């Protein structure tokens, strides 16, 4: 969105950030400006007071590495941490949220998230419990139905959804995670993701598959894996950026 790009071009470090430095960006780090440029993908993480929002700290580095590896999308090499009521939130195209415990937003936070989605942003909420009856799942779903009321709120995404072909093709829907296959929590493999559509576009992507734990490893160790499990993250990023 042009307004978002103009805003990001002028945005300094108005919110907290942590260095993640994928190898492809390390060399240019000393000369970089302090804030993201308008054309860069920014991995923004939602900070909320009620739960463990900062779980899985290595996710950002791994996702940024995957975006660099597979696409030509320029990235900002720092995770930006931001709250739902921050005025800068609508400048970002993507917002990651995770945790195990209670999710509770106040009125200002709900309004901020609604404005973020209505501005074209994508909130990706990933339940670390991967348990549809767990505290994170129940409380997050309540918050979404209050923030985005409607009969289709958190409806299952069909396997034909554009998200599953935005870059790599996932004809069978969302890829499984090793966390599900170990049979923890609700002892089931979730063969779907859910979401909130606004204006014909996905504004909230909701997962009980625990992608956060799946992607929470040192990005340099990806070469030891027989299959890159961060490819689906690339689809999410490309969808959010286009």
Explain this structure.
With 242 residues, the protein is an alpha/beta fold. The protein has a single domain (2-241), classed as Rossmann fold, CATH 3.40.50.12140. The protein is 29% helix and 17% strand. The protein has a five-stranded mixed sheet with strand order 4-5-8-7-6. A three-stranded mixed sheet has the order 1-3-2, with no helix packed on it. Helix 3 (59-70) crosses helix 8. The termini are close together. The model is unreliable at 1-15 and 26-31 (pLDDT under 50).
Average pLDDT confidence is: 86
How many angstroms does the end-to-end distance come to? 9 Å
CATH class, named Alpha Beta
Poorly predicted residue ranges? 1-15, 26-31
Write the layout of secondary structure elements.
Layout: H1 2-10, E1 16-19, H2 23-26, E2 44-47, H3 59-70, E3 78-83, E4 94-99, H4 107-118, E5 122-127, H5 135-147, E6 155-156, H6 178-181, E7 194-198, E8 201-207, H7 211-214, H8 231-241
Primary descriptors:
8 strands; Rossmann fold; 17% strand; alpha/beta; 242 residues
Question: Nutshell version of this structure?
Answer:
The chain has 242 residues and is α/β, with parallel strands linked by helices.
């Amino acid at each position: 969105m042009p307004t978002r790009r103009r805003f990001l071009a002028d945005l300094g470090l108005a919110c907290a950030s942590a260095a993640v430095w994928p190898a492809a960006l390390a060399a240019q780090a000393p000369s970089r400006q302090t804030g993201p440029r308008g054309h860069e993908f920014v991995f923004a993480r939602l900070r909320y007071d009620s739960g463990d929002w900062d779980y899985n700290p290595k996710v950002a580095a791994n996702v940024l590495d995957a975006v660099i590896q597979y696409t030509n999308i320029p990235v900002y090499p720092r995770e930006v941490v931001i709250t739902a009521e921050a005025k800068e939130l609508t400048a970002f195209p993507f917002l990651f949220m995770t945790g195990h415990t209670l999710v509770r937003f106040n009125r200002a936070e709900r309004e901020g998230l609604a404005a973020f989605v209505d501005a074209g942003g994508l909130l990706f909420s990933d339940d670390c419990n991967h348990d549809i009856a767990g505290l994170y799942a129940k409380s997050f779903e309540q918050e979404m139905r209050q923030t985005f009321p409607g009969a289709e709120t958190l409806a299952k995404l069909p396997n034909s959804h554009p998200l599953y072909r935005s870059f790599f093709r996932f004809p069978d829907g969302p890829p499984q995670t090793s966390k599900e296959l170990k049979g923890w929590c609700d002892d089931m493999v979730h063969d779907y993701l859910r979401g909130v559509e606004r204006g014909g576009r996905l504004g909230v992507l909701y997962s009980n598959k625990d992608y956060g734990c799946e992607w929470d490893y040192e990005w340099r160790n990806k070469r030891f894996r027989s299959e890159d499990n961060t490819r689906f993250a690339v689809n999410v990023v490309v969808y959010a950026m286009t």
